[in-house]
Structure formats: structure tokens, C-alpha cells
Design goal:
With 168 residues, the chain is an alpha+beta fold. It contains 2 helices and 11 strands, in the order H-H-E-E-E-E-E-E-E-E-E-E-E.
């Protein structure tokens, strides 16, 4: 019986739904083509080494610590990477247009800051790729944690290495 109630007015509705799906599929196809075009230059992918890894440790025995953050991000420019999360380590990008990046970590106890300095050098890659930024000499300039230890001073391209340990 419900099929009889649809009648002729149901056809434009079904046509409109299909038209909407076709538009979405067309946009997906356009995005896929653009993404594939970027892969024509494989040398242009992941050129900058701006990622650092941070792990949280317990001050008394240096074991991994899991903390609850109500938010964390960068101070300048003000970016919020996440809010309400439980973590033991995280990977963050450095601003390669400057020689330092400040992060904030907000918890129920308050807000802690970590200011990192580094050397950022632009290097020309090719006409198609433009330039890449090479970061080196990572150092901790200032922090409000109990203790911070720098493990390695060269940021990486992909987030997979712990560079800094924060003790609480």
C-alpha cells in the first residue's frame, strides 16, 4: 500500500536525491584528481621536517605517564589542536616560518607552557616544488613543567620520533 501513496509526486523527490548524490560524487572525483595531480611530483611530498614528538613521564620513576588535557595547541598563532583528551605522548608541528614555537597544555590543574627554539632554513628544491624548510638545532627555551628533557634536536618529517620528555 505505501507504494501507491507515493505516486507521481514521489518521483521528483527521488530524482532530487539522486541529483544530490551525483553532485557529491562529482566533487569527490574532482578532489581525487587534484590529489593525484600532486602525486605527479613525488619529490615534493613531505619535504619539511617540522614534526616533534613529546612524551609525558612520571617524575619519581621516569615511567610513562597518562595525563588528561582539556586542551592543547600553539600560542602564536593561536591554534587549538585538541580538547578533552587523555594522552601519554603526542606529535606536534613546529612553525617553520619562525625560529620558535610556543605550545600550551591546559589541564584541570592549570595551564603549562613549552617554548621551543630552532633554526629554520629555506632550501630551493625545484621549479615545480618550490622550497622546503629544514629545521635543526631544536632546544627548549622556556617551560613551566617540573622538568623537561631534550632527547634529539632534529625534527622529523613524519610524526614517529620522541624528541622531548616532559616530567610531572
Amino acid at each position: 500500500m505505501p507504494a501507491q501513496n507515493l505516486g507521481l509526486p514521489g518521483i521528483p523527490y527521488l530524482y532530487a536525491v539522486n541529483l544530490l548524490m551525483v553532485k557529491k560524487a562529482a566533487w569527490l572525483l574532482i578532489l581525487a584528481i587534484l590529489a593525484a595531480a600532486c602525486l605527479d611530483e613525488p619529490d615534493c611530498y613531505l619535504l619539511n621536517n617540522q614534526n616533534i614528538g613529546i612524551s609525558f613521564k612520571k617524575l619519581e620513576n621516569s615511567s610513562a605517564d597518562t595525563i588528561y588535557l582539556t586542551g592543547f595547541g600553539t600560542v602564536e598563532p593561536p591554534l587549538l589542536f585538541s580538547d578533552d583528551t587523555i594522552i601519554s605522548k603526542l606529535y606536534l608541528p613546529l612553525n617553520y616560518f619562525q625560529d620558535e614555537t610556543s605550545f600550551f597544555f591546559e589541564s584541570e590543574e592549570g595551564i603549562d607552557f613549552l617554548r621551543l627554539g630552532y633554526v629554520s632554513q629555506a632550501q630551493f628544491v625545484s621549479v615545480n616544488c618550490g622550497e622546503k624548510f629544514v629545521l635543526s638545532s631544536l632546544r627548549v627555551l622556556e617551560h613551566t613543567f617540573d622538568s623537561v628533557r631534550l632527547i634529539t634536536d632534529i625534527p622529523t618529517r613524519e610524526p614517529n620520533t620522541i624528541h622531548i620528555e616532559i616530567f610531572q
